[in-house]
Amino acid sequence: MGYEYILVEKKESVGLITLNRPKALNALCAGLIDDLGRALDDMEADDDIGAVVLTGSEKAFAAGADIKEMSEKDFMDVYLQDFITKGWERITTCRKPIIAAVAGYALGGGCEVAMMCDFIIAGENAKFGQPEITIGTIPGSGGTQRLTRFVGKSKAMEMCLTGRLMDAEEAERSGLVSRIVPNDELLSDALKTAQQIAGLSRPIVLMAKECVNRSYETTLSEGVRYERRVFHSTFATEDQKEGMAAFAEKRQPKWKNR
């Protein structure tokens, strides 16, 4: 089955997903979310893919959820449908690393989707925001929670209460994005980074991602204990033996992904 609202490619060991609703600035309609979920399912099942890049256009990563699609819904509609839940969290359950390559607007649901990814590389023209307050509602897919964890309460509160947008430089200073690159280098940089990750030991990459994510869900002492147990478990892998042997022998490791 094909995709209506996204473009899907395989670049060596990297899966590339491009949001593709240009006339709507990649607004996140139900069909797009369904397409995205199916693409991620396929990439998770593909042993040749070790990492994923999610991007949009130079003008907009995603300008938010589709307002036309939700404007006529009432409380019982959204409550009984569990609106902006089904499918929206698929990114957060993907075990393989996902990099958001963001140019242009990442607003509302678009900002939330970017924050669900493992890290964000931003183009120089990127703008982030949770402007839902200006249309009489609030973020509904983690905006008040993830943004606060990334940039702190004061900045997140101001953005959610005023709808103010954050440019790429402020986003980098605040810890929302890992780094900024020129717009014309954004996709190539993200793909290069994803390929670097995909070229490492698959199980060790998954363990590292799991440990970092654990830090947001537990106390420091419990997180360190969890990390240490996972660290110990790496010594049961063939790749730990190969990696350390290669280091000692001054050669490149040959990963078995086991």
Automatic annotation (TrEMBL):
Give its E.C. classification number: 4.2.1.17
One GO term (biological process):
fatty acid beta-oxidation
State the family named in the UniProt similarity comment for this chain: Belongs to the enoyl-CoA hydratase/isomerase family.
- Its catalytic activity? a (3S)-3-hydroxyacyl-CoA = a (2E)-enoyl-CoA + H2O; a 4-saturated-(3S)-3-hydroxyacyl-CoA = a (3E)-enoyl-CoA + H2O
Keyword list (alphabetical) reads: Fatty acid metabolism, Lipid metabolism, Lyase
**Lyase among keywords:** yes
Output the InterPro entries linked to this UniProt entry: ClpP/crotonase-like_dom_sf, Enoyl-CoA_hyd/isom_CS, Enoyl-CoA_hydra/iso, Enoyl-CoA_hydra_C
UniProt-listed NCBIfam families? PRK05862.1
The molecular function terms in GO held by this entry are: enoyl-CoA hydratase activity
Root EC class: lyase
* Superkingdom field: Bacteria
Q: Which Gene3D superfamilies match?
A: 2-enoyl-CoA Hydratase, Chain A, domain 1, Lyase 2-enoyl-coa Hydratase, Chain A, domain 2
User: Which species is this record about?
Assistant: Pacificispira spongiicola
Protein's name in the database: enoyl-CoA hydratase
Among SUPFAM superfamilies, the record links this protein to: ClpP/crotonase
According to its UniProt entry, what is the function of this protein? Could possibly oxidize fatty acids using specific components.
